[in-house]
């Protein structure tokens, strides 16, 4: 922490404010039909709507007003991740947004030296606001969050997700098929940020996915950790930090209630997570 300017509580308020304004604007854009203007990125199934671009522009503008001179790294317009002060995903769950499903979110995280200090995830369809600050706990609409207390992996509900690349999706499906008989069930909602927040709330006992980007987990991973979850993430882009040597694979993101975190890690490893 360099100064009061980087106080996590103040950064949290800024993240909540900007993400909330973006979520409100997204509701307006949906009414105007912005979800129907679509292009693709890494594959024919990896879509970007006009709303994604418009929303990131709005977030960048508001952050420039509130935090002049601070560097933003975003999903759509990129930026320098090694110098970033803010990490932004304008719509996490764009395919859900495109199809009219309600599980998508705006994610804004404040980072310093690649480490998140504060963040907010706002779900436009419901208005829910999740947020956290380092050593300040995590909340949902102002109510403190705490992860679940499950200790039996066989009774645990686990979230996951799949790549936009068909070859990797097939490997992920094989891993999921191996895990499925040994947990209560698997869920695939389509928004990594909301899945991580669900772990924070105890709505999921654990979550595992490969291939996520920094902006997918920067805010929500902090929310899960501050709610008491065991959280394992890759280093941010460009960081000289090796992935944990746990056999899950370099780009795995895992969050779990402490009572099942070790067992979930072992199960995923046994089911081929390191080869995904």
From TrEMBL:
The UniProt record lists the keyword Hydrolase: yes
Record gene name: suhB
Required cofactor(s): Mg(2+)
EC category name: hydrolase
Keyword Nucleus: no
Pfam families: Inositol_P (PF00459)
Family recorded in the similarity comment: Belongs to the inositol monophosphatase superfamily.
The protein's Enzyme Commission number: 3.1.3.25
Protein name per the record: Inositol-1-monophosphatase
GO BP term, example: inositol metabolic process
GO terms assigned for molecular function: inositol monophosphate 1-phosphatase activity; metal ion binding
Record's catalysed reaction(s): a myo-inositol phosphate + H2O = myo-inositol + phosphate
UniProt keyword list: Hydrolase, Magnesium, Metal-binding
UniProt binding sites for Mg(2+): 75, 89, 91-92, 216
